[in-house]
Write a structure and sequence with these properties.
Elements (H helix, E strand, L loop, with lengths): L2 E2 L17 H21 L9 H40 L5 E5 L2 E3 L4 E4 L8 E7 L5 E7 L6 E3 L12 E11 L2 E7 L1 E12 L2 E6 L4 E3 L5 E3 L3
Helix pairs in contact: 1-2
């Protein structure tokens, strides 16, 4: 499951090691090279001037370094622009419901689940677990990929308390379980972030998912 759990306010863990700014290093080298070249031209021996071919080669190297500095600056600007476009687009998702793997906050409203049982299955069961991972209910479902609405009731028809629940789809054939997998559910998006070039969505449950892992999107009900 490609979901990251957070406690309290959602945070993105940054485990990367600090990197040296290659653009800054290159720019510094460029300045040093320029000073050396200027000093070499200023203090060369008039009786033994610098060979023209060697001087031309140094000028060519100078030009290449200059172009590399400019290219690095341009790339940084492009990355920043792309990041701004991503966050701008993701901002439109805030307040909408994303179809993702992960827990959902139940507040008394029905929760829509998107099952996808294997073709060989002849029975499908929805398994509901609470925030601690304890199974609190089971519900028989149609053998279909059509959306299923869970009304928040347990097997006895008693309303479960408000809180965070996760769902699994258990598919079986001839009484033998073929597959148990996390169910796709709709979860409201509360925040969008950019981290290491990836767009992350913070869900109402406090979990985060990559924007690329969202299977569907709809207006909040």
């Amino acid at each position: 499951m490609d979901v990251t759990q957070t406690t309290g306010q959602a945070q993105v863990a940054n485990t990367s090691t600090p990197n040296v700014d290659s653009s800054g290093v290159l720019s510094s080298d460029f300045e040093v090279f320029l000073k050396m070249l200027t000093a070499q031209a200023k203090y060369q021996d008039p009786l033994e001037p610098l060979d023209s071919s060697e001087y031309a080669a140094q000028l060519a190297q100078f030009s290449m370094v200059e172009q590399q500095v400019m290219t690095n600056d341009l790339v940084k600007e492009m990355i920043a622009a792309l990041g701004a476009n991503d966050i701008s687009g993701a901002a439109n998702w805030i307040g909408m419901e994303a179809l993702v793997h992960g827990p959902v906050k139940f507040d008394g409203e029905a929760i829509t689940i998107a099952p996808n049982p294997p073709v060989a299955a002849d029975s499908v069961t929805l398994v509901i677990k609470d925030e601690q991972g304890n199974e609190v209910a089971r519900r028989s479902m149609p053998v279909s990929a059509e959306a299923y609405v869970w009304d928040g009731l347990d097997a006895d028809g008693t309303a479960l308390p408000h809180g965070e629940y996760s769902f699994q789809i258990e598919s079986a054939a001839k009484g033998e379980v073929l597959l148990t997998e996390s169910a796709l559910t709709y979860n409201r998006v509360t925040e969008a972030r950019i981290d290491s070039g990836s767009t992350l969505l913070v869900l109402e449950s406090g979990y985060m998912v990559r924007a690329n892992d969202v299977s569907g999107l709809r207006e909040a009900s």
